[in-house]
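User: Could you check the structure of this?
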Amino acid sequence: MRPVRVSVKAIIIEDGRLLALRSNDARVGTWYELPGGGQEPGETVPQALRRECREEIGCEVTIGALRFVRDYIADHHEFALWEGGIHQVELMFECRLASPPCPGHLPDAYHTGFEWLELATLAGTRFFPRALIDYLTAADPSPAPLYLGDVN
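Assistant: Sure, the predicted structure tokens are below.
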């Protein structure tokens, strides 16, 4: 069993659009996800999130409130065949851009860029975690839970 990994994610919304990484893999096709990634030993959570944003979207971010916490146990979800044994705890923060995003200097191998996704049509997009869509597009975000559970 692998150790549990801590991952940090940036929720960046501007003008009714969500900034998302576009990812592509020959086995599963194209999907979108929040910018962010794994915390390294010795890093605080804010340091990890700032580093991941520099690597993936090429800019600094201002970190706001913690919005969601998710367990991702891959064996329970559609990518189990490729990610079996992975257990990740994701901390998702509201963030603001300090400058326009640009291609990062160290994206993951399957990242093919980023896009601004319209919140109004997010439900029709292959975005993960899907459980976020209802909360990000809700007219009243106040009833959103902090802990989402083991969702995809």
